[in-house]
Amino acid sequence: MWCWAPGWRDNEGVPDLARMTRLTGFHFKPLAKPVDQALFTVTDAKPEEVLERFPDGSPSVVMRRHGAGADVFVSKPDLTAPLLHRLAALAGAHLYLPESEVGKATLWATRIRDNACVLEVQAMEDTTLHLRFPSAQPIRDAITGLPLGQGSVLPLKLAKGETRVLLAE
Q1: Checking CA distances to 65, which of 37, 43, 123, 159 falls within 20 to 30 Å?
Q2: What is the DSSP letter of 34?
Q3: Cβ pair 133, 168 in contact under 8 A
Q4: 169 vs 150: CA distance, rounded Å
Q5: Which pLDDT tens digit goes with each residue over 92-104?
Q6: Could you tell me the sign of the dihedral formed by the alpha carbons of 88, 82, 169, 162, in that order?
Q7: pTM greater than 0.85
C-alpha cells in the first residue's frame, strides 16, 4: 500500500513525479487543488481499478492487481477504518465485523493454536456487534470461562467503553 506521496522528495528534498512512478508503478499528476491534504491523483488508472474518487472525479484510491497480489495507492494521508476494512476484504482477510459495524468497536484477534483464537473487543459506543467467525465454533468469555454461544456469528451487546476478551475454540 502506497500512501500520500511515496518517493515525492529525495534525501535533499527535491520533488520528482517520475521517481514516484518508478517506485510505485503508478503514474501521477498533482491535483489542481489539494483535497484533505491529498496532493496527487493517479493518471493511468483503469475504471475497474478505482475504489474511491475525489469530488472532481479523479481517482483518490486505486488498486492494481498483478498475479496473486495487488498494489494500492491512497492519495490522502489518513487511512479510515472503512477503507482499511474494504482493502482487507479485497485481500481475502477474515473480517470479524461486518462493514456496517466498523468504527463501533476496536478488535484484536490473536491465533493461539490451529483452530483457536483470543479476541479482545472494546466498544466505542453502546452497541450490539455481530462477530463473525471463520467456522461454527464454541465461544466463551476468556476471563470467566462462561459460554457465550456457538456458531459462525455471535451477537455481543456492549456498553460504551466496555472491553470483553473472548476465546473461540
Answers
A1: 37
A2: E
A3: yes
A4: 10
A5: 889 999 999 999 9
A6: positive
A7: no
